[in-house]
């Protein structure tokens, strides 16, 4: 039995726009302290780090990633070796899925009562609702993939996502290696600390329909990611914002760049040296915004905690060691860790 929803955000937006209304349902209006019109930084935007993964000087390349992970918890990467044509195909098949008739998308809906987040759905949150629909499914390792949630239409969806999974894994390995070297550890240590070869790569497609009142709504509310890393492809409609020095900063779109979020597990493993970035998403009045984040998560039964080699009398553990599934449960249910 599929997840029961009153109405998808895409359908709500379509009906509002068809009637030429300039309003949104009350449940999507954010509290004043979160409304983007009032909280987006209006001053000169500081330069958000961009890292060239083709930089031949490893020390320089690693240094750029480590500095960004410490100061921002966030950066963009260029020259990452994922073919431009593959990124274009990834976007195309995702766009085509969300253009399908509603009943066809509902075939992939998250089952009612499922413990996994996989499937098509809408963000269900306490308080104000987010202006977004989404599709979740794992793309790596092959043993974790459930093709039940992979659209059969468009026909090339599976081929494109399987190919993308192989490339994005290489990018993830490269960044985790740099984060490890930045801790003065063996290059494989960070990866081992967040799941090793069992790291699960969870694809999410976010679909943010045009919103008549982008000043009052958010596509995704402020949060940090559960993952160790998030590797994201955006479309060309701006909307991602990161919280830096007490300001919400707009992230500039760089064609074909990947957006990297340091997530909770990298912060925990590094015992707080790396920063899990607080971020949110705004929406657009006339254009569809979409994004394709891939979350690098430990398996449910994997034990997460600070890397023991980093701990000393002067650097005691700042985080508890626990099963990832227990960490996730506490985070999703807003229970103190």
From TrEMBL:
Residues in Fe2OG dioxygenase domain copies: 198-298
Source organism (scientific name): Cannabis sativa (Hemp)
Record-linked SUPFAM superfamilies: Clavaminate synthase-like
Cofactor: L-ascorbate
Protein name: Fe2OG dioxygenase domain-containing protein
Highest taxon, organism lineage: Eukaryota
A molecular function (GO) term: metal ion binding
Keywords: Dioxygenase, Flavonoid biosynthesis, Iron, Metal-binding, Oxidoreductase, Vitamin C
Annotated family: Belongs to the iron/ascorbate-dependent oxidoreductase family.
InterPro entries: DIOX_N, IPNS-like_FE2OG_OXY, IPNS-like_sf, Oxoglu/Fe-dep_dioxygenase_dom, Plant_2OG-oxidoreductases
Keyword Acyltransferase: no
Entry keyword NAD: no
Gene Ontology biological-process entries: flavonoid biosynthetic process; pigment biosynthetic process
């Amino acid at each position: 039995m599929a997840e029961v929803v009153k109405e998808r955000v895409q359908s709500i937006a379509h009906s509002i726009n068809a009637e030429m209304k300039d309003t949104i349902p009350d449940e999507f209006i954010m509290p004043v302290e979160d409304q983007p019109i009032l909280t987006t930084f209006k001053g000169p935007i500081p330069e958000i780090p961009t890292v060239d993964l083709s930089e031949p000087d490893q020390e320089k390349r690693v240094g750029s990633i480590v500095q960004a992970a410490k100061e921002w918890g966030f950066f963009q990467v260029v020259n990452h070796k994922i073919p431009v044509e593959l990124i274009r195909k990834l976007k195309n098949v995702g766009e085509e899925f969300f253009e399908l008739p509603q009943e066809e998308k509902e075939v992939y809906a998250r089952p009612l009562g499922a413990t996994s987040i996989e499937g098509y759905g809408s963000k269900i949150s306490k308080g104000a609702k987010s202006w977004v629909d989404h599709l979740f499914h794992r793309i790596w390792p092959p043993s974790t993939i459930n093709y039940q949630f992979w659209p059969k239409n468009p026909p090339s969806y599976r081929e494109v996502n399987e190919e993308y999974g192989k490339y994005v894994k290489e990018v993830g390995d490269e960044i985790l290696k740099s984060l490890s070297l930045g801790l003065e550890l063996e290059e494989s240590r960070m990866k081992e600390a967040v799941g090793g070869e069992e790291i699960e790569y969870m694809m999410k497609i976010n679909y943010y329909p045009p919103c008549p009142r982008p000043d009052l709504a958010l596509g995704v509310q402020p949060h940090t990611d559960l993952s160790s890393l998030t590797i994201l492809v955006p479309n060309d409609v701006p909307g991602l914002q990161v919280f830096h020095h007490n300001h919400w900063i707009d992230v500039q779109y760089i064609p074909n760049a990947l957006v990297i979020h340091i997530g909770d597990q990298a912060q925990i493993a590094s015992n707080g040296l790396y920063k899990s970035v607080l971020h949110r998403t705004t929406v657009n009045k006339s254009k569809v915004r979409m994004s394709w984040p891939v979350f690098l998560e430990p398996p449910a039964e994997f034990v997460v905690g600070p890397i023991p080699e980093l701990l000393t009398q002067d650097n005691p553990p700042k985080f508890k060691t626990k099963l990832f599934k227990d960490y996730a449960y506490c985070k999703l249910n807003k229970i103190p860790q």
